[in-house]
Design goal:
16% strand; 8-stranded mixed sheet
Length: 268
């Protein structure tokens, strides 16, 4: 299995396949890199695709590191495997990781796609778009007492009622049964990061091409947030999936791949 251990002793699991420009996919909270399997298969015909398990998720080791250290460790991983420049695609928390990578090394990422992601996940007085902190705290408490059941319940909640009635969702649930559950400590620690992290200055200062792909019924990243995103990134591309929740790339993989492919080929 492709593992790499960084100097601080954190063992990362990653997969790289294909040739060409580097295209890196970063998953979100409570899942792992296998969630990108259909994107890896599709894009590896034209790109060198790399997927990574975040700490405590999938096959990667766990250490209680903050977002700054996580990004620094990931940059070491990229150096070791030869990913000097890349197009980055981040889902949910993975988008926040991508923004932190750019903050650490602004030359590393040349195009950025954020899927159901925003620069701050916790709502505040000057940022009403995120989740209320009490809601994040409630999820943490439920995890403490109902792990791992709560991981499955939360994952299910990220799909609309319409999506949960489809054959596609039943297929997703089938492959989920073979996935390892992220470590409870990692999930709780990441929730702490989501309470505190604010990467709005990074998003507002981006000079690279940016794409937002979202479901219109995603309760994690509600539509109102993208008025702010459009204001601070007026040249960004916005693509929407109707009647779709948090994971358009799982429910509509072919359409998602087409929209991402179009963006990666756009002149700017």
């Amino acid at each position: 299995m492709p593992h790499l251990t960084t100097p601080r002793g954190l063992k990362w699991y990653y997969q790289s396949e294909g040739r060409g420009d580097n295209l890196v996919f970063l998953h979100g909270w409570g899942v792992n890199s296998r969630i990108w399997r259909q994107q890896a298969k599709h894009f590896s015909d034209h790109y060198r695709v790399t997927t990574i398990d975040l700490p405590g998720h999938g096959e990667s080791d766990w250490q209680p590191i903050d977002l700054d250290v996580l990004a620094e460790e990931m940059l070491i991983l990229f150096d070791e495997i030869g990913v000097s420049r890349m197009y980055a695609v981040g889902s949910s928390f993975g988008g926040m990781v991508a923004l932190k990578l750019i903050e650490k090394d602004e030359r590393r990422v040349t195009r950025l796609t954020l899927v159901g992601s925003q620069p701050r996940f916790c709502a505040g007085k000057d940022y009403p778009f995120g989740l209320e902190e009490v809601r994040i705290n409630k999820l943490a408490g439920q995890l403490e007492h109902q792990y791992p059941t709560m991981v499955h319940i939360f994952f299910r909640s990220l799909f609309t009622k319409h999506e949960r009635r489809t054959r596609r969702y039943r297929w997703i649930q089938t492959f989920r049964k073979t996935d390892s559950i992220p470590r409870k400590e990692a999930l709780l620690h990441t929730l702490d990061i989501l309470r505190q992290a604010d990467l709005r200055p990074v998003l507002e200062g981006l000079k690279i091409p940016v794409q937002f792909i979202n479901g219109t019924e995603d309760y994690i990243c509600r539509r109102e947030i993208y008025e702010y995103c459009r204001r601070v990134q007026p040249r960004a591309r916005f693509d929407w999936f109707e009647r779709c929740g948090h994971f358009p790339f799982l429910i509509f993989p072919h359409d998602f791949n087409r929209l991402l492919s179009d963006f990666l080929k756009e002149e700017r």
